[in-house]
Design a protein that fits this description.
This protein is an all-alpha fold. It contains 13 helices and no strands. It has one domain.
Length: 310
């Protein structure tokens, strides 16, 4: 398949995944929101920054390094796999021990148990991170679609059932864990890759030299993005945090969907031709033209719709 066809196919599949995932999540959240109190969403929102920071540190930019590497071998993938797994366990231990401090900061004792249970998702996700990276590098977004949508459906059913059974905020926690578990199991079945018992210090140093800059950038971006949730959670009730978290999520849906979709397609696309500067510049220019051509009408429509609704 030519590079152009790969790009078009990848774009179609990744947009289908993004909007399909958001559609399922939106429907599930509507059902659960009619059962749970906003304060219970607020409790999850309070730990959002810790979840995001931990996710950034677990990966440490090594996934991006694998994608930009021309021909990574089994040793590359296995090294990153075991590093991610070790980091996820280390960060979980840190969060487990500091969970009472987080609860004291927000003056919400229940957060101790929530953090200790919810953060198990880091370890679960670490078992599938490299497989997802391989699929992204190969621009095989169809398999990612076939994994993410069923996982959201199954975990959504779990969350709704637990919410009806009056599990409160714990229904959201178990829903998140269920999504991680279902996704990881499917990835192992569909990806066709498993790590070897090998860890190369040279490979690790190579990937870490590229990845740590991305990790630092990701940490700073996460703090900036979530600073309001920290302030609101510290000085206001969980109800206010819940309203802010849900409103902010809905506000970011169009931008985050389009940005995430384009990043997933363009990064492996550009990485595959990074040794040909002339071609890279031409493809980049064509990509930017296509982005402007597609997004400009969408943004104009959204602006006009918002003004009319107002």
């Amino acid at each position: 398949m030519s590079l152009r066809k790969k790009a078009i196919s990848g774009t179609v599949w990744i947009f289908a995944q993004q909007f399909g995932s958001q559609g399922i999540s939106f429907l599930v959240s509507i059902v659960i929101a009619r059962i749970l109190d906003p304060s219970e969403f607020g409790l999850i929102g309070m730990i959002g920054i810790f979840m995001a920071l931990a996710t950034t540190l677990v990966n440490s930019g090594l996934a991006q390094s694998l994608i930009r590497t021309a021909k990574p071998d089994q040793e590359d993938y296995s090294t990153v796999f075991f590093f991610n797994l070790a980091m996820s366990i280390l960060i979980y231990i840190i969060l487990f021990l500091t969970a009472p401090l987080i609860a004291d900061f927000y003056n919400q004792e229940i957060l101790t148990g929530i953090v200790r249970l919810y953060c198990l998702s880091f370890i679960i996700n670490a078992f599938s991170a490299v497989q997802l990276t391989r699929l992204t590098k190969e621009m095989n977004f169809k398999v990612q679609l076939l994994v993410s949508l069923p996982s959201l459906v199954f975990s959504g059913i779990v969350g709704i059932i637990l919410a009806y059974l009056d599990y409160g905020v714990w229904s959201l926690v178990w829903m998140g864990l269920a999504q991680s578990f279902f996704s990881t199991v499917q990835i192992w079945i569909r990806s066709g890759w498993a790590p070897s018992l090998v860890f190369s210090k040279e490979k690790f140093k190579y990937h870490f030299r590229f990845g740590y800059n991305l990790a630092i950038s990701g940490v700073l971006d996460t703090i900036f993005t979530n600073i309001y949730q920290i302030i609101i959670g510290r000085f206001f009730s969980p109800v206010q945090v819940g309203f802010y978290t849900r409103a902010n999520l809905l506000k970011q849906l169009p931008v985050s969907n389009i940005t995430n979709a384009l990043n997933k397609v363009t990064f492996p696309l550009f990485a595959s031709i990074n040794d040909d500067d002339v071609r890279l510049k031409r493809v980049y220019k064509q990509t930017m033209q296509m982005v402007v051509f597609v997004l400009s009408p969408v943004m104009i429509f959204m602006g006009g719709f918002g003004r009319a609704a107002f």
